[in-house]
Design goal:
Strand order of the largest sheet: 1-10-9-8-7-6-5-2
Order of helices and strands: EHEEHEHEHEHHEHEHHEHEH
CATH architecture: Alpha-Beta Barrel
Number of domains: 1
Largest sheet: 8 strands, parallel
Radius of gyration: 18 Å
Shape: globular
């Protein structure tokens, strides 16, 4: 299998998921991920202005929704807040487990999560070792569930720990480095967090199972190491500060041949990014 390129399922604001998937299909893509999700119901979905899937819904409804647009689901996103205290209103261990069970039911191999950035005084005041411990504790049961369900849980660069090579290594090895724990490389978040994405790719070549592509403008250089993630980029791949071609070549050298996703806003930038990756050898 060659490296494939899909699209983030948040193309247009204030639109339902069915609309997002049609837009992805019309842009010429065959792959997409289950992006935004939550427990229970949501007013925005019921009244037609939110592209959110319910973790308590029938996962086969999601599968049929993607299939109607000729799209293959490559990952189920479960980006969490694992550094702040557990609370009913925070996306955490319980939601990750629901995402794993839903993914397993419909044959999606990968669930993507991360620690995120803390928003409380408690989260900010922890030492690095304390942060590593709390993330490990909150991922212990999801990893057990993932193993039993035949799903691989991927850690994405989107936080102070996962944006650094040493932090990612501490989490992976602290959790026992099992086969069902991997990495979702995010080129933009990694760079923004202060790490060279090419070096990150080299170090974790055997663990990278999926990629989120973002390039970021040179003007953001001053923010590196102080901001640990962003949802989407507004510029095309190959036009910013990140060595996207270098990352791609390292992926190839490391034997990666899986799915990747564009996290790019704007049709022109999305299509230009797709063409750029195809020029490097992607499908």
């Amino acid at each position: 299998m060659t490296i494939t390129v899909g699209c983030f399922a948040l193309v247009d604001p204030f639109s339902v998921l069915e609309h997002q998937l049609k837009r992805i299909h019309d842009l010429g893509f065959q792959y997409a991920d289950i992006t935004d999700n939550r427990d229970g119901g949501q007013l925005g979905v019921e009244f037609g202005f939110a592209a959110t899937a319910s973790l308590d819904g029938n996962p086969y409804d999601l599968k049929r929704m993607f299939e109607e647009q000729g799209l293959t689901i490559t990952t189920y996103c479960a980006h969490a807040n694992l550094l702040d205290p557990t609370a009913p209103w925070r996306y955490g261990t319980s939601q990750i487990i629901k995402a794993i069970r839903a993914a397993a039911a419909i044959g999606v191999e990968y669930v993507v999560t991360t620690e995120g950035e803390p928003s409380t005084e408690f989260g900010h005041n922890m030492t690095e070792d304390q942060k590593v411990f709390t993330v490990m504790e909150k991922l212990y049961e999801p990893l057990r569930i993932a193993k039993d369900h035949g799903v691989t849980l991927l850690l994405e660069n989107h936080g102070e720990l996962t944006d650094s090579i040493s932090g990612m290594e501490k989490l992976i090895h602290g959790l026992g480095n099992p086969d069902h724990l991997g990495v979702n490389l995010d080129t933009g978040n990694c760079w923004l967090g202060g790490t060279d994405p090419v070096e990150m790719t080299k170090v974790f070549a055997s663990k990278i199972k999926h990629v989120h592509w973002k390039d970021l403008p040179k003007e953001m250089e001053a923010q590196r190491g102080t901001v640990f993630g962003c949802g989407m980029s507004t510029i095309a791949l190959g036009t910013g500060a990140i060595d996207i071609a270098g990352v791609y070549q390292e992926l190839v050298s490391g034997g990666f041949n899986g799915h990747t996703t564009l996290e790019i806003a704007g049709d022109e930038a999305v299509l230009q990014s797709y063409e750029y990756l195809k020029s490097l050898g992607a499908k």
